[in-house]
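Record now logged underneath.
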Amino acid sequence: MAEKHVYRFGFDANGNNVTEVAGATVDEAKWITGGKGANLAEMANIGLPVPPGFTITCQTCVAYSGAGNVWPEGVLDEIDEYRKDLEERMGKKLGDSEDPLLVSVRSGAPFSMPG
């Protein structure tokens, strides 16, 4: 199986939880998706209202940075797949001039950093 670079969290348009679990525990998930990503997934899994979204793994971001800002093979396709899924769940399109999908882009790490 190919390495997974992106994990979805939140609910679909029908209210079904479509969160993908990144680890066996929240602590393990934090090493995969960062603290924010793991906590958003955990909140969705216990039924709290979480805006739908997806998280790119910490390892993918490290690989991107280490390769001189070049994405590992297949990552952009995976991100595009998850963007399309998010557009479908929200009923909006990124960049649409009439009713755009608005997103928040946040950084995260496996551990909390001061500042």
